[in-house]
Amino acid sequence: MLTPAAQVESVMEIDLELLDRLGVRALLLDLDNTLLAWNQHDLTEEVREWVELATGRGFRLCLVSNATPKRLGVQSRELGIPCVPSAQKPRRRALRKALRLLEVQPGQAAMVGDQVFTDVLAGNRLGLYTILVIPLHLKEQWWMKWVRQLEGLIIWWLQRSRNAWG
Ligand SMILES: [Mg+2]
């Protein structure tokens, strides 16, 4: 019940071709740490493009999140896909609602999210294909690399000034 059918680095890595072959028509998407890093309000260009790609390939998308209607509504309008807010995952009610909205059966849908105890559990309980995404907040090393480079530059500059001033 807690084991996802697939695990990916990010939504961009989801094998849409495989889902197609498995008969998956719809993707229920978690928001926080799946499409959006916890400390960010704006969706990245990459995520927007991926949503367009998936939609263009005929997948029906829906945001299913424990977030408030107001917060989720913003992202839903932004991406042009429907949403089910206040989902209370791992309860199944919100997922059922999303399936009704997208007019698909549980066997034709995948739940995509970063949490085993909410997203994966809810999806598995309902018989959806479940995809676990590595939480976005664990992937901020690129930023730390940049900070370290900057730190290196400052240290170099400090040493140089010290040398210059002897
Ligand atoms: Mg999440």
Give a quick precis of the structure.
The protein is α/β, with parallel strands linked by helices. Helix content is 45%, strand content 14%. It has a six-stranded parallel sheet with strand order 1-6-5-2-3-4, with helices on both faces.
Describe the structure.
The chain is α/β, with parallel strands linked by helices and about 170 residues long. It is elongated and about 75 Å long. The longest helix is centred in the C-terminal third of the chain and has 25 residues, at about 140-165. Helices cover about 45% and strands about 15% of the residues. The protein folds into 2 domains: about 5-135, HAD superfamily/HAD-like (Rossmann fold, 3-Layer(aba) Sandwich), CATH 3.40.50; about 140-165. The model has no long low-confidence stretch (mean pLDDT about 90). The N and C termini lie far apart (about 65 Å). The protein has a 6-stranded parallel beta sheet, sandwiched between helices. It contains 6 helices and 6 strands.
Number of strands: 6
Fraction in helix: 40-55%
Q: How far is it from the N-terminal to the C-terminal residue, by CA?
A: 66 Å
Oligomer: single chain
Superfamily (CATH H level) name of the largest domain: HAD superfamily/HAD-like
Order of helices and strands: EHEHEHEHEHEH
What is the residue-averaged pLDDT?
Answer: 91
β content, as a range?
A: 5-15%
Enumerate the distinct ligands.
magnesium ion
Poorly predicted segments: none
The CATH topology assignment of the largest domain is Rossmann fold
Number of self-contained structural domains? 2
Separate helix tally:
6
CATH architecture annotation name of the largest domain:
3-Layer(aba) Sandwich
Q: In this structure, how is the largest beta sheet organized?
A: 6 strands, parallel
